[in-house]
């Protein structure tokens, strides 16, 4: 199932993609209408949505809705650094002994088609294709062999990074969290449809130029290891989004540098999940309050 958060007639809703339509969960009172609440409801919400799909009712043409990020404001939005062997090779850094996690602030999340802002304060704007998994069950101290049971599904994240701001601090948080620098979506593919998340092709294009092409089998720490490791320290909750790292081909390592520029379009794609596309524009002028 492809789970979506979408806007229709000015109301945000939860539903599922079927062909070129969206099955509108708003049609059933027992289907929660935010993705966080939907995932927290567990199997009962999925069953109710599946029944609605099977009924052939409550379908809206995709052309009439606006797809939002599937988890517009995740409780936790984490990434992992240096998690692909080929990316480590291009950076000339050492393989980490332990997973290196950082936080992206949830206010950076945008949807497929939304614009990425080239900041006023930097021209060093980079892309990173990443497979992300979405937690579906509240959990702590998850054994490695049980980790697959807490995953609701998978989505795409472009871990957009402002490189000079990233390296001003060892935590990387600010350089990873500029507004609009967390494209996510366009949907969550439920875990039952991805037999092996560790054998998926992933690619990035800037305009028509292929920049990244690799496979999730090259991860240093796999998804189940990440869950086991993180859950030793913190409770993972439904709707938490964890991006799993990027392969080689990032703009900062190109010669000359391949940073994104206003007027370009960046697309990332992951096998069996989909494609996420965002234009790049100059950050709008003006002082914003409220």
Give the topology, please:
Layout (H helix, E strand, L loop, with lengths): L1 E7 L2 E8 L2 E4 L10 H7 L1 H12 L4 E3 L4 E2 L9 E5 L3 H7 L8 E4 L5 E2 L5 E3 L6 E2 L2 E7 L15 E8 L2 E2 H4 L6 H4 L5 E9 L10 E6 L2 E7 L7 H8 L10 E3 L21 E6 L3 E9 L8
Parallel strand pairs: 6-17, 8-14, 9-19
Antiparallel strand pairs: 1-2, 1-5, 1-14, 2-3, 3-4, 6-7, 10-13, 11-12, 11-17, 12-14, 15-16, 15-18, 18-19
Structure summarized in a few sentences:
Helix content is 14%, strand content 33%.
Structure description:
There is one protein chain. This protein is α+β, with helices and mostly antiparallel strands. The protein folds into two domains: 2-67, no CATH class; 77-282, Fumarylacetoacetate hydrolase, domain 2 (Alpha-Beta Complex). The protein is built from six helices and 19 strands. The chain has helices at residues 35-41, 43-54, 85-91, 163-166, 173-176, 223-230; strands spanning 2-8, 11-18, 21-24, 59-61, 66-67, 77-81, 100-103, 109-110, 116-118, 125-126, 129-135, 151-158, 161-162, 182-190, 201-206, 209-215, 241-243, 265-270, 274-282. Strands 1, 2, 3, 4, 5, 6, 7, 8, 11, 12, 14 and 17 form a twelve-stranded mixed β-sheet that branches. Strands 9-19-18-15-16 form a five-stranded mixed β-sheet, with no helix packed on it. Strand 15 and strand 16 form a beta hairpin. It is globular. The two termini are 37 Å apart. The model has no long low-confidence stretch (mean pLDDT 96).
Strand content: 25-35%
Tell me, briefly, the overall form. globular
| CATH top level label of the largest domain | Alpha Beta
CATH H-tier superfamily of the largest domain: Fumarylacetoacetase-like, C-terminal domain
| Class per helix and strand makeup | alpha+beta
